Amino acid sequence: MSNLPNCPQCSSEYTYEDGNLFICPECAHEWSLESEAEDREDNKVIKDANGNVLSDGDSVSVIKDLKVKGTSLVVKIGTKVKNIRLIDGDHDIDCKIDGFGAMKLKSEFVKKI
């Protein structure tokens, strides 16, 4: 038996392959595995503490004093961070902070300016 995926819309197991598309005979839904993977990547939206969508190049402000791991330094509330870069992972913002250098921040501790 072939290992075709179930229909993402109705979960039917009777899907079949037609070229590079998968088709569900029960609900007539058509999809490809490539578009499914792209949709999952596009759906990952990173938001700040207020729910605003962040994107590469945005400027943000820190909303809480943050201890810098491994040092006695603290990133103070209100510190402005320019030109952020979004990355995958728990700490989803990569940036440079004046006086501290390169570091990673969690989006839940910043707000968009």
TrEMBL record:
Tell me which InterPro entries the record gives.
Answer: YjdM, YjdM_C, YjdM_N
Q: Where, by residue number, does the polypeptide cross the bilayer?
A: none
- List, alphabetically, the Pfam families matched: YjdM (PF03831), Zn_Ribbon_YjdM (PF08274)
Residues forming the Protein YjdM C-terminal domain are 46-112
Q: Where is the Protein YjdM N-terminal domain?
A: 4-32
Classification via NCBIfam families: phnA
Which family, according to the similarity comment?
Belongs to the YjdM family.
Q: What's the protein here called?
A: Zinc ribbon domain-containing protein YjdM
Organism from which the protein derives: Paenibacillus mendelii
